[in-house]
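Form 7-S
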Amino acid sequence: SKHQWGGLHVWFSLLFVVICIVHVFFNWKVLLNYFKDQSREHLALTWEWSLSLL
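Output:
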């Protein structure tokens, strides 16, 4: 029935959120390093563009 499908939707949504949280927990260092590397590349590019404008 429609009510049962709604219940399944809620449970699978909660399961998905829990799996995402566990995934982020186990990959936290990798994610931080990725964003640090991206910010360094962005800053380097900004520095080069700023220098070229002089």
